[in-house]
Write a structure and sequence with these properties.
248 residues; 7-stranded mixed sheet; 4-stranded antiparallel sheet; 7 helices; 27% helix
Length: 248
């Protein structure tokens, strides 16, 4: 089963506690503070089910959502934005093969999606594709799961239970590769019974210095790191780290 094929229909239910509105407001602050040019069009890379895409559309941006999962994009396409907002455009593409029709003034990549790029060559290609489609002076914002957080997940088991779905997560961190593997069993109520889906997700523990070097290599500058929805430097125990950088 491909990544997110079983999870897509239950993703929004299982991520209700993510705090999308707070994160969208933080991204908007960073766009306004960090971009060197006026921002009208924003790319949401690895947009998933489009919740963040829609919130940023409702904030006044014209949005392009890109994701590799057709199942996640099907969920996104079914969402409506408030009256007056321009409905997002959705494209099915992998991050490292991004191909837009023109440039955008800003790009975001949310909820540790860059951690899913476990190969440095794919990450390098992704950053170079982003530089190609972000206008000079535009801003790129993303967040990662901090390496310390992923290391601490080794051997952990989590249960997320809702009325019509529950999910069991088992995690394993491999020190040499720095990859955290999430084995998932998803049980979803369908009709009079329950259907089981199995998935595996993998995230790489990228160090801040590694990412900064790759960003500079790809042509981004003014690189800054931020705490989890905080306009300050990340603390040593911060589980999620935000980045901002400028396309030079």
């Amino acid at each position: 089963m491909s990544c997110y094929e079983g999870l897509a229909a239950s993703y929004d239910c299982l991520t209700e506690d993510v705090g999308y509105e707070r994160r969208a407001a933080f991204l908007q602050k960073l766009i306004e503070r960090q971009s060197r040019i006026p921002v009208h069009t924003v790319l949401d890379l690895a947009c998933g089910t489009g919740t963040m895409t829609c919130l940023l559309a409702e904030a006044g941006y014209e949005m392009i959502g890109v994701d590799v999962s057709e199942d996640m994009l099907a969920e996104a396409a079914g969402k409506q934005v408030r009256t007056g907002a321009v409905p997002p455009i959705y494209l099915c593409q992998s991050m490292d093969r991004l191909d837009l029709y023109g440039t955008v003034e800003a790009a975001v990549c949310c909820l540790d999606s860059l951690n899913y790029l476990t190969d440095v060559r794919a990450l390098r290609r992704t950053l170079h594709r982003l530089r190609l489609f972000i206008a000079p002076g535009g801003v790129f914002l993303f967040d990662i799961n901090a390496p310390s957080k992923l290391r601490a997940l080794d051997g952990q088991i989590f249960l997320d239970e809702r009325e019509d779905v529950y999910c069991v997560w088992r995690t394993e961190f491999e020190k040499r590769s720095r990859i955290c593997t999430f084995g998932m069993d998803i049980f979803r109520r369908e009709g009079d019974g329950w259907q089981r889906y199995g998935e595996e997700h993998r995230e790489k523990a990228w160090e801040v210095e590694e990412l900064a070097a790759l960003l500079r290599e790809a042509g981004f500058g003014h690189i800054r790191t931020w705490g989890d929805c905080r306009l300050r430097a990340p603390r040593p125990d911060e589980g999620r780290i935000y980045f901002s950088c400028i396309r030079e």
